[in-house]
Design brief:
Number of helices: 8
Number of strands: 11
Radius of gyration: 16 Å
Shape: globular
InterPro entries: Biotin-prot_ligase_N (IPR019197), Class_I_gatase-like (IPR029062)
Helix content: 25-40%
Protein name: BPL-N domain-containing protein
Distance between the termini: 31 Å
Length: 234
C-alpha cells in the first residue's frame, strides 16, 4: 500500500498549513493557487486535525511547504515553534518554503523559523510607507519593474542582510522588499508581504476597490503569485 502522500504518478507533494496559525480562507486560497500552477502538485492540508500531520516524516515526502496568512505573529509562532527545526531541516535539505504575509513573517527570526538571510518587520512602520493601517488595505508594489496593486493586511517587508543568491521580485513604493526568493541550505524560500493569492471576494468583503482587468483573478495578482511559485520551485 502506498503512503498517503505518494501519488501514482509521483507528483510533487505540496503541504499547505491549515490550523490555528492561519485564518479561514487563507489556506484554501494558497491551495487553489498551487493547483493552478504548472507544477502538477499533489496538494494536502497539514496541521492539527488534518489527515496529514505536520511532522518531519510528512515534510520528508514533500517538495514544498506553504505557510499562508494568519493573525498575530507571536501567537502563530507559539503554535508552530515545535516544528521549527523540522521545517529548517526540510528546507535545508532541498525543500521549498512558501510564505504569504504571516508566512513571510514566520520565515524571519524574531520570532520565526530563521530561513532568511536577514529578518522581517512591519511595512506599515517603515519610513514613507504608503499604508499605515493594520487593517485591510490595497498596497502598491513594483513587481519585476511593473506597478501593481495588491490586497494587504499588515504584511512584512524583508530586510535582507545580503542579496547574494537572492531574487527580489517586488518592492514597495519606498523601495523596501515586498517579495523575494532566497536560498537556505540546498533549498529555497519564497516570501511575499502582500497577498497576490487573494481572490476578488477578498476585496469585495473588505469594502476595498478591486483592481480592474479583463480577468478578475489576474487583476488581483494571481499571475504574480504564480511567478512566486515558479521562482521558488526553479
Amino acid at each position: 500500500m502506498r503512503h498517503a502522500l505518494q501519488s501514482r504518478l509521483a507528483r510533487p507533494v505540496a503541504l499547505v498549513y491549515r490550523g490555528p496559525a492561519s485564518l479561514p480562507g487563507c489556506s484554501e486560497a494558497v491551495a487553489e493557487l498551487l493547483a493552478a500552477s504548472r507544477w502538477n502538485f499533489d496538494i494536502h492540508f497539514t496541521g492539527p486535525g488534518e489527515r496529514v500531520p505536520l511532522s518531519q516524516a510528512s515534510l520528508t515526502r514533500a517538495a514544498l511547504y506553504a505557510q499562508p496568512g494568519g493573525d498575530e505573529l507571536d501567537e502563530a509562532y507559539r503554535q508552530l515553534r515545535e516544528h521549527r527545526e523540522a521545517i529548517r531541516r526540510f528546507v535545508g535539505a532541498g525543500g521549498r518554503y512558501l510564505g504569504f504575509c504571516l508566512g513571510g513573517y514566520l520565515a524571519g527570526a524574531t520570532p520565526g523559523f530563521a530561513l532568511l538571510p536577514g529578518d522581517t518587520d512591519r511595512y506599515i512602520d517603515t519610513r514613507r510607507a504608503t499604508v499605515r493601517t493594520a487593517g485591510n488595505a490595497v498596497v502598491e508594489v513594483s513587481w519585476r519593474g511593473r506597478p501593481r496593486r495588491l490586497f494587504f493586511q499588515d504584511g512584512p517587508h524583508f530586510a535582507l542582510e545580503t542579496e547574494e543568491g537572492a531574487t527580489v521580485l517586488a518592492i514597495y513604493d519606498n523601495h523596501t522588499v515586498a517579495a523575494a526568493v532566497t536560498p537556505f541550505g540546498s533549498g529555497r524560500v519564497g516570501v511575499v508581504g502582500p497577498h497576490p493569492e487573494a481572490t476578488p471576494d477578498w476585496f469585495t468583503d473588505a469594502g476595498l476597490p478591486r483592481p480592474h482587468g479583463p480577468d478578475p483573478q489576474l487583476a488581483c495578482g494571481r499571475d504574480l503569485a504564480l511567478d512566486l511559485v515558479n521562482a521558488v520551485m526553479t
